Each structure stands twice: as structure tokens, then as C-alpha cells.
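Hi F.,

I've been meaning to write this up properly since the lab meeting, where we talked about keeping a consistent format for the predictions we share between groups. The idea is simple: the sequence comes first, exactly as it goes in, then the C-alpha cells exactly as they come out, then a line or two of notes. No screenshots and no reformatting. I'm using this chain as the first example so we have something concrete to point to.
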Amino acid sequence: MSTLDDVAKLTGFSSMTISRYFNSPERLKPETRKIISAAVAQLNYTPNSVAKSLAKKCSNIIYVYITPNLDILHPFVQLSVTALGERLGENGYSLLLSRKPYTDETCDGIVAVGITPAQEGAISGLNKKPLVVFGSCTSTDNRLDVDNYRGSYDMTQYLIGLGCSRIAYIGVGNNVMYGRERWRAYRDCLNDNALPPDGAPVIMGDNKEPAGYAATKRILESGTVPDAIECASDLLAIGCIRALNEARIPVPEKVMVTGFDGLGYEIISHPHITTVRQPIYEAGQKLADMMLAVLSGKTFSQGEYIAPTIVEHSSTRRLNA
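Output, unedited:
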């Protein structure tokens, strides 16, 4: 197995110059880099990753804080962390996953996923290292999120375009930022279309299938059957359709139902759910790219957002079709 000294002997440069080629190539002349590159290829030399890390005074570890309010087995977490790990792995980094906020663990940077409004105060403690946040957060500009507001607004507008004027809403409680944004967009879209905000019930609850079921039962018990029920997640929509099926209210012939997430749950219900698809795998890759940029010294002047898209299934149809 070739060593750094072998490369030095073949090129005639010092071991320090060869080391600089791997750690700070911009400090070498183009001709020098070309000679060393050829020697590295000829000798099939691979630098020792541990030695390289020590030379750079880094660990090549990224601390990933997944807040306790997130289900570690949910597709949102699985897809985002998988994409994050793959992209960072391609760049020589490994992940240290934790359900606890960072204290003093050895790492080069921190990724925080699923911060709630109540947890924002703890973000300042994470700034001991380069930090990137996945989700809505006002404490740092190094953040990435799906545009929850735009996705929910577009879905409400989509239902209005189908002819719906009485759109009930089942939301996620205001203890999570994405829940706030999705509800606010629904309300704003009704207002922009001159539809009364109290034209159909609005019920908030946990992001779970039973909550969607219970909320739909309450909507039906109110005595008003809406044109559509817009749900802030696909899990809520599954519970909603279960309650409508029990009440023998056909979907979508009598009531349309929509969800939000598009991570696979939308196709396990009958009928399949028209939803707002979050590109979570793509977001995880972009999150890794943002972390790499921050590690290289870049700062962001504002958060970045990824646009979701509406995916139509059989839980909606045109009323005049």
C-alpha cells in the first residue's frame, strides 16, 4: 500500500507539500497540483482519513438532533435523514444521531430537525458549532424548510377551483410551526376568495389518524356537511375518510378530502388521497449541501424554502364533471 512518503519521493516534493495538496490545494500552484495528481493516480494512493481529519483539526462528524416530538420511524424522518447521510457521506462525513440537544459532543457541525416554537430558545445553545435547521425557525438564517404556507394555500385554491365553497379544515395544533403555517394559508386563501372564514368548521388536534376521525365526527355532528374537508396531514385525512365511510357519506361524490405530506400514507386509504407532496428526500440532500456550505464559511441571509406540489388522487373530483 502506497504512503504519503512514496508520493513525495516520486514527485520530488516534500511530505508537507503533498499533505497540503489534500488539505489546502488552493495554496499550491496549478503545475504542482498537476504533478502530484498524476503521482497519486499512478501509486493509487488514498490519504488516511483519520490523519487527514487530525490535520484539519476536525472530526468529520455531523451531530443530528432529532427533537423528541418527531416519530423516529415516520417517513419524514427516515427520508430526510437518509438523504442527509448519503450526501454528507459522499463528502467524507458521518452522522451522530441524537434525541437530545447538543452539549459538548465531538463534531464539526449540527443539524437540528423538528424544532418547535417552545424549543427555539434552546437553539442559541446549539450555536457552539456551525448550525443548520430543518424546519421553520426564527433563531437562525441557516435554515431550510418546505414551503408549508404555499402548499396549503395552493390546496385551498385547488378546492375552490373545483367549485367548493364550504371547506372545513382539520389542522395540527399550533404547538408546531408547520401547523400554524398550513392553517394560516387556508384562512388567507378563503379571505382572498371572499369566502366566509366561518362557512365550515375548523378543528385542531394531534397529527394522528384517530384525531382526524374524531374531528370529522364532530364536523358531521355540527349538522353541516361541507363540500370538502382539507386536512393538514395525510394521517388526519385517513381518519377523516374512515369517519365519512362509516357515516356512508361518499368520497368524493358528496365530500372531497385532501391531505398534506405525500410520503406514502395517501395511497393506503380508499379512496386514495389528493395531497400536497413534500419533496423530503430532495430536501434532505439540500440540507446536506447547506451544512457543507456553512462548514466552508458561508452564511445565509435568510432561510431557504422548497416548493411542494399537489398530487391528485381519487378523493377529489370536479363538482360539475
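Notes:
The two ends are 71 Å apart (CA to CA).
The first helix runs from residue 4 to 11.

If this format works for you, I'll send the rest the same way.

G.
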